[in-house]
């Protein structure tokens, strides 16, 4: 069985993006496109951590509920959550009610806020934060997979990013989760070579 299929619209996609309209829309418009702002990176990092052990389709279907429950993933707002918010979230049937992941998301928001102004920026200062840190682990080259078997689950850069985030107090940021984040936000391009989305991020050539 091929890892790619041609849809009724004539576009070539991987199997995971061809069977579910929601996943197809996500693949066609979001996955692999650059996200360079703090709030956007915090949301993706949070959802990738929450997704651990679950399917991405499950998280994507619940994403509107997650955004409502977590103040659109605004780091300052989530960092201010207290025990009453934890109990509110644990009672919210629209999200994944996992206490450890909820506490990690709140803790990661606080770590995000604390990181501001501590990461080197292109001018040599220390004005950067989460987005600058995550993007600083962009590799010198990206994979060029022709099948799912060619796509790695982690990389030296995702391992290094995981270690640095853990050092700064983040949780649920293992190297496999961080590689998935890097794929999702365009830091690496793991679109299969013959997919219609290969090279569309503008970060890497086709």
Automatic annotation (TrEMBL):
GO BP annotations, alphabetical order: base-excision repair
Domain of life the protein comes from: Bacteria
Pfam family, one: Adenine_glyco
Keyword terms: Metal-binding, Zinc
Residues binding Zn(2+): 191
Any one GO MF annotation of this record: metal ion binding
Protein name, entry field: DNA-3-methyladenine glycosylase I
